[in-house]
Amino acid sequence: RQSLKIGLIPGDGIGVEVIPAAKAAIVALGSDIPKPDFVDLDAGFECFTRTGVALPEETVRVLEEECDCAIFGAVSSPTRRVVGYSSPIVGLRKRLDLYANVRPVTSVAADPNEKPDVDLVVVRENTECLYVKQEELKHTENGKEARATRLITERASRRIGQMAFDIALGRPRKHLTVIHKSNVLSVTDGLFRETVREVPTLPEVNGKYNDVQVAEQIVDSAVYRLFREPQIYDVMVAPNLYGDILSDAAAALVGSLGLVPSVNAGDKFIMGEPVHGSAPDILGLDIANPLASIRSAALMLRFLGYVKGADRIDRAVDEVIREGTVLTPDLGGKGKTSEVVEAVLKKI
Ligand code: NAD
Ligand code: MN
């Protein structure tokens, strides 16, 4: 590749404050990656109130036809129902078939030669489960009744399973925990659990995953054990909603949601995205932690094969956290977003 075309979708709230940090980190890599070429793209609730559309077709078209990859900030999806609005990130994951949401949660050891206390990856199915958003409301003689469809397919469970096995295989411990609730939901979660567990026996897999050790855990006790003994986990694979909740929970173990990156990955496209939302409570104060966004840029580059560039960014972030002199208030510091970005850029 001569150049790398990167779509930037800041979205709403602090998305707008942290995406420039990801961009700056990529630019700072210089010749370690192909020359980056950024294109700004619109989406989000602010876009919806301005134009009537939360995810413009032009954004999807540019991503599909012109971009090699993208970074998404966050969107503010109202908790009340707004007619005509649907979360653009959920839409984008489906439109671009980004079927895996990979969320590494890693703490930074005080000594760079020591192992971190928390070092796990949540691999979240990204296209189905309750996020198919098929909800209906009925008025019965006993009052309102609401239902939602929870879709689990063999195809989606198999491909997220394969992604999770691949990720486990690439890590020193090679351990995978399948998260489910099939003691209660034996049909839906049962299908997820069985399909993922069968991945190593697929003919095309051909023994590739023989070294991966597989365990399973019911989701509620998985959260309990995650808080008591996070070191038992390496890679966790989960249906969409459990994966969403587990990764926010895991973020608490490493100090802040503002530290945890992700990529939305499909077979043809990669989109980085910090795990946090638009954080309206801290908007405009210049105190949003930019490190999740910066790490999302690194993770995106890593998935694209630019490991050297990704390592440089991750090392710089780790050093800034380890030194602890310039950190945002979510990590107990007094630093501004801009000062943290500057410190990271200097290290890169
Ligand atoms: P949130 O992740 O925005 O915030 C949760 C808490 O973490 C808040 O106290 C916030 O200040 C803090 N926080 C989050 N990111 C931070 C950062 N980078 N630095 C410092 N502190 C940070 O979750 P929420 O408050 O439940 O949701 C707010 C809005 O974000 C909602 O409209 C929701 O729909 C949306 N949301 C979007 C996404 C997404 O775009 N992928 C994900 C989650 C929530
Ligand atoms: Mn979430």
From TrEMBL:
**GO BP terms, alphabetized:** isocitrate metabolic process; lysine biosynthetic process; tricarboxylic acid cycle
Matches recorded under Pfam families: Iso_dh
> SMART domains attached here?
Iso_dh
Instruction: List GO molecular-function terms, semicolon-separated.
Output: homoisocitrate dehydrogenase activity; isocitrate dehydrogenase (NAD+) activity; magnesium ion binding; NAD binding
Which GO cellular component terms are attached?
mitochondrion
Keywords on record: Magnesium
Please state which protein family the record places this protein in. Answer: Belongs to the isocitrate and isopropylmalate dehydrogenases family.
Put simply, this protein is called: Isocitrate/isopropylmalate dehydrogenase
Native source organism of the sequence: Gloeophyllum trabeum (strain ATCC 11539 / FP-39264 / Madison 617) (Brown rot fungus)
